[in-house]
Design a protein that fits this description.
heterodimer; A: alpha/beta; Rossmann fold; Helicase, Ruva Protein, domain 3; Zinc Finger, Delta Prime, domain 3; 16 helices; B: alpha/beta; 3 domains; 54% helix; globular; nucleus (chain B); DNA clamp loader activity (chain B); DNA_pol3_clamp-load_cplx_C (chain B); DNA replication (chain B); P-loop_NTPase (chain B)
Chain lengths: 349, 350
């Protein structure tokens, strides 16, 4: 069943190069390469030219290039060697309680360093960099402990906070930083990048695949690249099509949603029950059903505005219940019966 | 040995259904590019079986030589220890982080960091990495899931995660976007029939068609349950005396409660039902299942207009049950509510 061993050794040497996820392989190496964030890029480039940097706060939805941008900056300032001892990267997977802020961060921040020479003739920096990734998952106590540290060590250290939701960063911290908003990638920027990667990796597919990826990823570059790589690996020998992308991303085929609505129109609880059971046993996640159902309802003309508003309020409730950990079957059944009530009551009036 | 273990396929080639999925998985493994996986699907559809088969495909038969160990972690601030059961082979580790309760983040951080520090030496077959199998990721706290985010990226050169859960609703988006999601649907009727016939053939007996349909409707897509039912039925004597399967005790009990609710709606009845509910909980029937089955039983008998209400309140109390700590309150509240609904409806009728 398996290849003889000497053969696998050959394979193995290939693997080491290959198995790197494209997401990290094609991470921008310099600030210029960061896609689609023109304002941020131009501001950062100016800062880099002067060799000085304010404290930074990057915020925006996932996969828009926040981590990539700061890593690229660090790379340009310090080069691959110095980056190891001049940059402290902490993220949600590290212990980041108030103790860490008081000891680790403070100690690191207090060291002074020599001026570095910088890469490619860029002026170097006289400061170190502390990157706090996923800063919105830090407790507000820990954030409060940072306040004075940021100010008192600003001679030697710059902080960069990255987060999805700026509202979770306490005001005193936010006001000490230059804020940059990262926006979701627009269609062309994303498709260009995907095409570039496909070309490098010899992925064979046409334009409809790219637009499908763009559609399911919703402006999240990391998601898009992961989908591209996964579907390329998963359906190795076949030419990629739109359906493969939908499959990989866990999007539910429109026919399922249609049959859901069909059952809702039937006014029969037996049909409803079979349909919900069918969906559950197909393993479709209820949260995904609900979000696609929402799109479907919003776009359907035969449902009146009043019904739509009732149903969407309900969808909101159900979504919350699901996040709280309710049973999927009952919740789906409830939304189905609610829609059925709405739709059939209209017939009675 | 139970039939479910005895006849478990242990490689991707021996799988009985979802053949194209197995094919694609194999391609991926042979290609050597193995992303983190998130395997999801209903119970008894074969998630774990497939994960084990993947492990075997990657590391060869040695991956199935497993040992069980208990590991304890020291809590960083308090003096208590956290104990977790670990199933491991030379190449992979399987943990159920939910066991650690609120300290699951710690377990995840420690284990993955430990593994990332010691890459595997002998890389036989296709894996140049170790695999961590995490069960029931949907039971992980948000904290622990956030802790996984960057760890997954950083340690991806030495270890891969295979996560397994029933539903992806409770898995946070950043994790989903880092994994290749693999949906494993429940087997269809004909696929179930195929597997059951195959097992019966291996055990040298025949399944009468009536029994087959009964088994399949009863199991409702859960293959494990179907096999257990079949084995239990066979144990009662062969050739089969009857084609009727025993309804499970608790199922009978719930339909009894539903009957009581519909016949009589009084406070006395409510307190006698309470005793029954306690009995069910005492026998470790999950309260979610009780409320779900009770609601399904009730809508079989009540009037159409009441059905909407029953479903609404069932989902309402089930949600509260998840938030609260004592399920009995909410179960009883649901019973009382259904009684009042039925009573109101019947008095309106008069």
């Amino acid at each position: 069943m398996f290849e003889p061993k000497n053969n696998t050794n050959k394979l193995k040497s290939g693997i080491v190069v290959k198995s790197e996820p494209w997401v990290s392989k094609y991470r921008p190496k310099s600030v210029d390469e960061v896609a689609h964030q023109e304002e941020v890029v131009s501001a950062l480039k100016k800062a880099l030219d002067t060799g000085n940097l304010p404290h930074l706060l990057f915020y925006g939805p996932p996969g828009t290039g926040k981590t990539s941008a700061i890593l690229a900056i660090a790379n340009e300032i310090y080069g691959p060697e110095l980056i190891k001892d001049r940059v402290l990267e902490l993220n949600a997977s590290d212990e980041r309680g108030i103790d860490v802020v008081r000891n680790k961060i403070k100690n690191f921040a207090n060291f002074a360093v020599n001026k570095t020479s910088g890469v490619n003739g860029k002026p170097g920096a006289v400061f170190k960099l502390i990157i706090l990734d996923e800063a919105d998952s830090m407790t507000s106590d820990a954030q409060a402990a940072l306040r004075r540290t940021i100010e008192s060590t600003s001679k030697t250290t710059r902080f960069c906070l990255l987060c999805n939701y700026i509202s979770r960063i306490i005001d005193p911290l936010a006001s000490r930083c230059a804020k940059f908003r990262f926006k979701p990638l627009e269609t062309e920027a994303m498709i260009d990048k995907l095409k570039y990667i496909s070309q490098k990796e010899q992925v064979n597919c046409d334009d409809s695949v790219y637009s499908a990826i763009q559609e399911v990823s919703g402006g999240d570059m990391r998601k898009a690249i992961t989908y591209l790589q996964s579907s390329f690996r998963f359906y190795k020998d076949k030419r990629l099509t739109k359906d493969h992308i939908y499959d990989i991303s866990g999007t539910i085929p429109p026919s399922v949603i249609e049959s859901f609505m069909e059952a809702c129109k039937s006014n029969s609880f037996d049909k409803l029950k079979t349909m919900v059971q069918g969906i559950i046993s197909q393993g479709y996640p209820a949260s995904q059903i609900i979000s696609q159902l929402f799109d479907y309802i919003a776009m359907t003309k035969s449902i009146t505005d009043k019904q739509k508003s009732h149903i969407t309020i309900k969808i909101g409730e159900i979504d919350r219940n699901l996040i709280d950990g309710s049973e999927e079957f009952l919740q789906l059944f409830e939304i189905a019966s609610f829609i059925m009530k709405q739709l059939t009551q209209m017939n009675i009036d | 040995m139970l039939w479910i273990d005895k006849h478990k396929p242990n490689s991707l080639d021996l799988m009985d259904y979802h053949l194209d999925l197995s094919e694609n998985l194999k391609n991926m493994i042979v290609g050597g590019d193995f992303p983190h996986l998130l395997v999801y699907g209903p119970t008894g559809a074969g998630k774990k079986t497939r994960i084990l088969a993947i492990l075997k495909e990657i590391y060869g038969p040695n991956a199935l030589k497993i040992k069980i160990e208990h590991k304890s972690f020291k809590h960083p601030t308090s003096s208590k220890n956290i104990d977790v059961t670990m199933i491991s082979s030379q190449f992979h580790i399987e943990i159920n982080p939910g066991e650690a309760g609120t300290n699951d983040r710690l377990v995840i951080q420690t284990i993955i960091k430990e593994i990332a520090q010691s890459p595997p030496i002998d890389t036989a077959y296709f894996g140049s990495f170790k695999i961590v199998v995490l069960n029931e990721v949907d039971k992980l706290s948000k904290d622990a899931q956030h802790a996984l985010r960057r760890t997954m990226e950083k340690s991806s050169s030495v270890c891969r995660l295979i996560m397994c859960c029933e539903s992806t609703a409770k898995v946070i988006d950043p994790i989903k976007s880092r994994c290749l999601g693999i949906r494993i649907p429940a087997p269809t009727t004909s696929e179930m029939e195929k597997v059951l016939t195959k097992v019966a053939k291996a055990e040298k007996f025949d399944i009468p068609p009536k029994l087959m349909t009964n088994l399949i409707t009863h199991a409702n897509g859960n293959l494990r349950y179907a096999l257990l039912l079949l084995e239990a039925h066979k144990a009662k004597g062969y050739p089969f005396q009857t084609c009727d399967l025993y309804q499970l005790d608790w199922e009978k009990y719930i339909s009894m409660i539903s009957g009581e609710i519909t016949t009589d709606q009084t406070p006395e009845k409510l307190s006698s039902i309470r005793a029954k509910l306690y009995e069910l909980i005492g026998h470790c029937i999950p309260p979610e299942l009780i409320i779900k089955n009770l609601a399904l039983e009730l809508i079989k008998v009540v009037d159409q207009s009441v059905k909407f209400e029953i479903i609404y309140w069932a989902s309402f109390y089930e949600h509260r049950m998840q938030l609260g700590s004592k399920p009995i309150f909410h179960l009883e509240a649901f019973v009382a509510k259904s009684m009042s609904l039925i009573k109101k409806h019947s008095s309106q009728m008069k």
